[in-house]
Every structure is written in C-alpha cells, then in structure tokens.
C-alpha cells in the first residue's frame, strides 16, 4: 500500500510521514531524495534556483513498489501514484512561523503562503480526479499522525 502525504512546504509532511510510517512498520520515502538519488529531473528553474522534478518518472518508480507498504511525501506527492492521498494544510500564522524558523527568505515564504491561501495542492488533486483526505496540521505533530493513522486503518 502506498500512502502519499502532500501539502504546501512547511505543513509537516516529512515529520508526519516518518512518524506514521514508523508506527505502522512501513517504509518511508522522501520523493525529493528519490529524485536526487535517481537523477529524475526534466530541467532547472532559474527563478527559484532549483531543479524541476520529473513527476512521471518518480510516479513510475513508486508504482514499481506498489506491493510494498510505503509512506511517500513531498509537495508534489499528489502527482504521484498512491493508494491513499492525504493533503496536509496549515493555518497561515503557524505556517509562516515554521518557514521563518527554517530561515527561508521572504520571497520563498510569500510564494508558499500564497500557495496555501489559494489551496494550490488541493486544487491540483481535485483537477486530477483523485480521492483525497485533508488534515489540518497546525497543531501537534502527534495529533496529526493519529489522524493519518485513522485514515490508513479504515
């Protein structure tokens, strides 16, 4: 079973996915690390100064593992093959605090805040026709993990 955790950067995807995977004895895969490890890129974004991930190639890599029990996470995990898709959202005040704590520059914080305000990830999931669950991760990580586990165990 492949469980995907997606959401705007700063919503807690990594920590939630790692903890939930650990509690269930599932493997954890960061799609960003997988892209780096297998060099799954289609270009470079000069404005954001980052590589552009080949989500189709990553999805193919994950689909090869569909008989395994895995939590995957990334801000583009909703574009990748999964059996269950969970989108984390976060209150704007808390999200900004988390991004500032990471030392992100103002432009990056503003872009991600706008993404959360406009519900970009959720909109993309809706457009794709995928069924998904939405969890507000503004509070305690362990509370969010409990909500994730309830969904997975249904």
Question: In brief, what are we looking at here?
Answer:
The protein is of the alpha/beta class and 154 residues long. It has helices at residues 13-24, 31-38, 55-63, 92-101, 106-117, 120-128, 141-152, and strands at 2-7, 27-30, 41-45, 50-53, 70-73, 84-89, 133-136.
Structural write-up:
With 154 residues, the chain is of the alpha/beta class. The chain has one domain (2-149): Rossmann fold, CATH 3.40.50. It has 7 helices and 7 strands, in the order βαβαββαββαααβα. The protein has helices spanning 13-24, 31-38, 55-63, 92-101, 106-117, 120-128, 141-152; strands at 2-7, 27-30, 41-45, 50-53, 70-73, 84-89, 133-136. It has a 5-stranded parallel beta sheet with strand order 2-5-1-6-7. A hairpin with a 4-residue loop joins strand 3 (41-45) and strand 4. Helix 1 crosses helix 7 and helix 4 (92-101) packs antiparallel against helix 5. The radius of gyration is 15 Å and the shape is globular.
Encode the helix/strand succession as letters: EHEHEEHEEHHHEH
Annotated CATH architecture: 3-Layer(aba) Sandwich
Number of discrete helical segments: 7
β-strand number: 7
Q: Average pLDDT across residues?
A: 96
Largest sheet: 5 strands, parallel
Helix content: 40-55%
Uncertain residue ranges: none
The coarse silhouette is globular
Q: Per DSSP, what share of the residues sits in E-state strands of 2 or more residues?
A: 15-25%
């Amino acid at each position: 079973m492949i469980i995907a955790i997606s959401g705007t950067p700063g919503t807690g995807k990594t920590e939630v996915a790692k903890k939930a995977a650990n509690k269930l004895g599932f493997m954890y895969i960061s799609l960003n690390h997988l892209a780096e490890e297998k060099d799954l890129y289609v270009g470079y974004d000069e404005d954001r100064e980052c590589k552009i991930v080949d989500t189709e190639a990553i999805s193919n890599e994950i689909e090869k593992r569909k008989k395994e029990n895995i939590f995957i996470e990334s801000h583009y995990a909703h574009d990748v093959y999964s059996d269950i898709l969970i989108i984390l959202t976060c209150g704007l005040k808390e999200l900004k605090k988390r991004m500032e704590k990471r030392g992100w520059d103002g432009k990056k914080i503003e872009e991600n805040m706008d993404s959360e305000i406009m519900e970009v990830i959720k909109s993309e999931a809706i457009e794709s026709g995928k069924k998904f669950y939405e969890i507000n991760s503004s509070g305690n990580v362990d509370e969010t993990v409990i909500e994730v586990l309830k969904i997975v165990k249904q």
